[in-house]
Design a protein that fits this description.
By secondary structure, this protein is mainly alpha-helical. The protein has 7 helices and 2 strands; from the N terminus they run αββαααααα. Strands 1-2 form a two-stranded antiparallel ribbon. A hairpin with a 2-residue loop joins strand 1 and strand 2. Helix 2 runs antiparallel to helix 3 and helix 5 packs across helix 6.
């Protein structure tokens, strides 16, 4: 080691102060822009960054049909009971999907995705989903195309 990087073993140990991430994150979040969403007469201010609990809950919702999982996920961004409120107002699953895509994108970078683009992204996502597998009777009812034989020269290599 060089003299510059070698620790001075004779120097008294300095007590290091703990890094205060609570204060750092609080100060940092005050300076980050936040997107706003108006829906059914209520304005919601989205968080300055995507909460980890939202991400974890989103994974759970993808493999669950329990409405309570969706409620928990939405409560993280919009507050308690919004799923029931929005459902009572007539929100469709398509509309919910668009709101979620819009929100997630604009939490990360406010103003990055328009409502129209969020709707396009939702449609692309839905188009990419595989259709439900056909049952046995439906599979047997469809004719399979005959396999073509490839032309061969007749000579062996």
């Amino acid at each position: 080691m060089s003299d510059e990087t070698q620790l001075d073993e004779d120097a008294p140990a300095l007590a290091l102060q703990a890094a205060d991430f609570d204060a750092f994150f609080a100060e940092e979040s005050e300076t980050r822009p936040r997107a706003r969403v108006s829906l059914y007469g209520t304005e919601y201010v989205l968080p300055e960054s995507l909460p980890l609990m939202f991400t974890l809950q989103m994974q759970r919702v993808q493999h669950s049909s329990d409405p309570d999982d969706v409620r928990k996920m939405l409560a993280i961004l919009y507050g308690a009971d919004v799923l029931d409120l929005w459902a009572e107002r007539g929100m469709t699953d398509r509309q919910l999907g668009i709101v979620l895509i819009y929100s997630a994108a604009n939490i990360r970078r406010p103003g990055s995705v328009s409502m129209e683009r969020a709707a396009e992204m939702y449609e692309q996502q839905e188009a990419g989903k595989a259709p439900a597998p056909a049952n046995r009777a439906a599979r047997r009812a469809t004719k399979k195309p005959a396999k073509k034989k490839t032309a061969s020269s007749g000579s062996r290599s």
